[in-house]
Design a protein that fits this description.
Layout (H helix, E strand, L loop, with lengths): L3 E5 L1 E4 L4 E7 L6 E8 L6 E7 L5 E3 L7 E6 L4 E6 L8 E9 L7 E2 L3 E6 L1
Parallel strand pairs: 2-11
Antiparallel strand pairs: 1-3, 3-8, 4-5, 4-9, 5-6, 7-8, 9-10, 9-11
Length: 118
């Protein structure tokens, strides 16, 4: 199993920035780490993910150009830099991990609240 520890988040004004980190108990070249968010009354949304194998990334259209995901495999940590934040980015953010071949993310860290005030 992979244990994940997320940190970051908080309250910020629109246009501001926040940084998340997600540290894993173990990573291999087959580990993929993603960030998800869920706003009140909405379904959970995949925000971004990265492969530890080759650093390939994915971003939801809603965050492209504003969020940046990066990995430090030596530190077993993935970072999510969020800038130009909007009130619509307000949600509980969670990091998750899966191994290549898994259809879904099965290892989850605790959720962290992000509130963007207008």
């Amino acid at each position: 199993d992979v244990q994940l520890q997320a940190s970051g988040g908080g309250l910020v004004q629109a246009g501001g920035s926040l940084r998340f980190s997600c540290s894993a108990s173990q990573v291999t070249l087959t580990t993929n780490v993603g960030w998800f968010r869920q706003a009140p009354g909405k379904e959970r949304e995949g925000v971004s993910c990265i492969s530890h194998k080759d650093g390939s990334t994915y971003y939801a259209d809603s965050v492209k150009g504003r969020f940046t995901i990066a990995r430090d495999s030596a530190k077993k940590t993935v970072y999510l830099e969020m800038s130009s934040l909007k009130p619509d980015d307000t949600a509980v953010y969670s990091c998750a991990a899966k191994i290549d071949g898994m259809r879904k993310y099965v290892y989850w860290g605790q959720g962290t609240q992000v509130t963007v005030s207008s």
